[in-house]
Amino acid sequence: MAKEAVSFFWFRRDLRLEDNLGLFQALQSQHPVIPLFIFDETILEPLPNNDPRVGFIHESLAAINTKLLEFGTSLLVKKGKPSEVWESLLNDYNIQEVYWNKDYEPNAIQRDLVVDNLLVSKGVTVLAFKDQVIFEEAEIVKADGLPYTVYTPFKNKWLEKYNSIAPVQEWDATPYFSNFFKSTFEFPSLGQIGFILSSIKVKPHNLKLVANYHETRDFPALDSTSYLSPHLRFGTVSIRKLVNWAVRKNPVFLSELIWREFFMQILFHFPKVKNRNFKSAYDGIEWRNDEADFKRWCEGKTGYPMVDAGMRQLNETGYMHNRVRMVVASFLCKHLLIEWQWGEAYFAEKLLDYEMAANVGNWQWAAGTGCDAAPYFRVFNPEIQQKKFDEKGIYIRQWIAEFDLGYGQPMVEHAMARDRAIATYKAGIVK
Fold this sequence. Notes:
This protein is α/β, with parallel strands linked by helices and 431 residues long. Helix content is 46%, strand content 8%.
């Protein structure tokens, strides 16, 4: 007996049912749609078994599955290498079409190419859609077709294009949920995937906190940020809804969303930046890369309260305030002369909102080696940053219990470190 023809929608960085373009398009298919998520073993293998991001993904998938059950369907969850999972699915189902939303990171592009070739070789139609950005790699380019490498002209072109279509269309798939394949797939526990629940949690996002974003964003003690970044990273919120909201409510917050797309297109066009300097002239810098110094930075024991508070917040919660991120990154690269790749890798391990494009882009900005980066001779003074943005020490005391008991001496003197950094950069930059 012939198997029923079906289509698949593959969830990846878009863990939501609402305003999901690829899902919307899949549900227009003439075949019933099986929703799928694959826990990619190549991503999971190096992670600790209590990685909070895996727990958040599982929690988000469970919420999707609960909603789907209301419509007589369920989420098919698999674990393995994606190409091998798809090989198995091709044997189990009569797959006619596969839909997904595009991912622009180098490893994801390669993964999708392999899966696309496999599916097409078996006669399956693959359809991929733009969902995690407003404008993708070829949409915001210079007149000569080359990518922007400076943020402000990119932003201006981005706004011009957005204003020509505003508001960007949102996609409600709810009326088409009857087109899902009728099923009751068993939803796996976190333990069945090989993980345990972490004490670190992704916080709910709150847009109301960013109404005065332009006035409060630099003061970590106010705790006035939206906590949106992990939700954007994993797609539990729609970038279209966010941008349409930000355009009306707060242009400074909108600028941060545009920075996100700027760094994403930089990574797409210049994939070397994932582990190499955008500015190759900086490749000759002789970094100290002292492992003992790096350990003190990781543990928040540098003797600079703003730096230490940020690192302890990161280690305990998976979050770090954006202003503080700039301070700790500058300190690592400039004061300690440790390569940005060391800090980037540590953030990748700890941050709940880790996204390669933004993480690499911001670390190279701090190090001075990236596109449109802070100049190498700008060296943040952690003590001045503390006085400007946490004058009463409220944020610092939140994370440094021993602060009022006679805090330790700085591990390096600022003026000396600043002079050393500038001299080292000058000597290492290729003219």
